[in-house]
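Hi team,

Below is the intake form for DENN domain containing 10 from Cebus imitator. Please confirm the fields before the structure is written into the shared record.

FORM ID: S-0412
PROTEIN: DENN domain containing 10
ORGANISM: Cebus imitator
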Amino acid sequence: MAAAQAADTQLMLGVGLIEKDTNGEVLWVWCYPSTTATLRSLLLRKCCLTDENKLLHPFVFGQYRRTWFYITTIEVPDSSVLKKVTHFSIVLTAKDFNPEKYAAFTRILCRMYLKHGSPVKMMESYIAVLTKGICQSEENGSFLSKDFDARKAYLAGSIKDIVSQFGMETVILHTALMLKKRIVVYHPKIEAVQEFTRTLPALVWHRQDWTILHSYVHLNADELEALQMCTGYIAGFVDLEVSNRPDLYDVFVNLVESEITIAPLAKEAMAMGKLHKEMGQLIVQSAEDPEKSDSQVIQDIALKTREIFTNLAPFSEVSADGEKRVLNLEALKQKRFPPATENFLYHLAAAEQMLKI
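The structure came back. Fields below:
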């Protein structure tokens, strides 16, 4: 138990404070432990206080080079001890994806800073959570790390909402994820982008891999370079300019127009056939069933996905070095599947690193 708790608490990497003063200046004020200049400028960019449009985003999250960031921003009421500050953001960096957990903890830290006007109390609470997984305070609320299960975070989004927006086209997203393609999602509101993108990895539940999620990306050279180092990803943008960057995506999702576009270079790998139609029908049927919860829909999709892998199994063999299973292309061709099915199974084997080199 103690070991599990220790493992859980070692997930946080750092805490920081950004302030906007009465002159409208935004400054990185404090952090514990230290942070890099690159990460600091990234977090200043992500925190809405540096935004020209003056919109306040209470909570944003994202990932940069395997570090997750969570930012809670609040307006300072007149009654606060912070007289020269109009707004501030509390930033947490961590190794794990768990927006609900870190939103709850940053809210507690915000209340502390409002009350005491000094980062000392915040640092004490941060260290308490880091070492014991818990911080308790009468007036600011308590926080218990183990209340926030990672699996709960994976299931927090709504697959049903995605299907009600895109219907049969949801199968394009499923196919792109199966083949580890690059998906870019656009909406001018960051909250809409985050809600949609965080749900997508659940379409390939068998992988339970949220490291592919980059829910808040700017068209910034450093961020794009980090993104392009990933094989497949889900990247969220609030700048429509991203639609003019076909080098960044295989599939482009415009949430405002409810449109999904497959990039020309990805069309061959993403060719749809009978297999995809069956998958699409199952997804829609399951999601439209009022009796079914989101997690049941995810389960249905996962079962159907397993069937696809079962289809692939007879055409795989142990590689010469005995290390892993590889695709026997001849056996696949002899089966004479419809061209779209054979094509998809071949690309799926490639995505699963089952091709002979």
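SUMMARY LINE: The radius of gyration is 23 Å.

Thanks, M.
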